Amino acid sequence: MNFFNAMLLTTSLFAGALAGAEDKIIKVDGSSTVYPITEAMAEQYQGSKKDASRVTVGISGTGGGFKKFCRGETDIQDASRPITTAEMEDCKKMNVKYFELPIAYDATVVAVNAKNKWLNEITADELKMIWEPAAQGKIKKWNQVNAKWPDQEIKLYGAGSDSGTFDYFTEAIVGKAKSSRGDYTASEDDNTLVKGITGNEFALGYIPMSYYIENKKNLKAVAVIGGAKAPLKTGVLPSKETVENGTYYPLSRPLFIYVNEASAKRADVKDFVNFYLKNAVTIVPEVKYIALPSKAYTLGAEHFSKGKLGTIFGKESHIGLKIEDLMKKETTF
User: For the whole model, what pTM was predicted?
Assistant: First the structure.
C-alpha cells in the first residue's frame, strides 16, 4: 500500500470513528424551565450506562429549540408549552414527525425581592396592566398600578421571546401569546432573572417555580388572584398542592419533551426516552417540579412504544389546564 492510499484509509477510519461517536450523542435543546429535569435525567442515565452514551442538553428556549427540532437538528425538544400550529407546519415542511410526552407540571411564580414587605398578593388584572404592550413607557411606577403601592420605579424581569414561559405568561395574563411590553430585562436563562430580582428591592418578575424554590432566601412569591375563571377569588400561592388541585390559576402548566420519530429508531435515543419516563415520578420532584400521576408516564410509554405520533393540542387554549384534564386528553389520544 502506497502512502496516498494509506492516508485515504486512515482518513476514512477517522471519519468513521467520528461518525460513530456522533451517533452516540443524544442531542436535546429547548426550554430552560425543563432543562433541570432533563439534565438530571441525562446525568443519571449516563451514570447507569457508565458513560457509554452521551446526552447533551442545551437551553435555546422553547421557541428557539423548536426551530432546531423542526429542522431535524436535535433528537429531543424540551418544551414548557405545547407545540404551536406554526411549529407544527415547520416540522411538516421538513418531514419531522414527533412524539409528544408530558413529563411534569410547573407553576410560573410572580416573584419580588425578599425585602419587599408591602406586596403579598396581586390580581391578574394588575399584572396585565404592568405587562401589556400599552404599558411600555407609561406604567413605570408601582403606584400607577395601585395607589397603595410605593412611588418607586418598577424594575421588571421576565422571560425572553424565545421562551415558552414568555408565551405562556403573556397568553395567560395579557390574553395573547407573545403580546408584551418590551422595556424590561428579558432572558431565556432563568438564573439571570433571579439575579436581577434579588438585586433590586423594587423588582418584579416571573420565573419557573423550581428556580424560585432554589432561591427562596432572596425572593418572595406573590399570591395571585386569578380573575373570573379562577376556582378561588382570593390570592393563591404556588405550591405542589395548588398546582395539583388547579387553584393556582392561571399560571400552572404542563411541561413536555418532544421526540423526533427518526431519532427514536436509534437504540440509544429509545433507551433514554424509556429511562426518562420510567424514572420521572422519582426524579421530577427531586429537582423541585411536580410529578404527574404514575399513569401518565405509563400512558406516555405506551404511546411511545406503539408509535403514537402528533399532539393532543390543537388551536384551543391550554391556559389553566389541570392535571386531571391533561390525563383525560392523554387517555383518549
Answer: 0.88
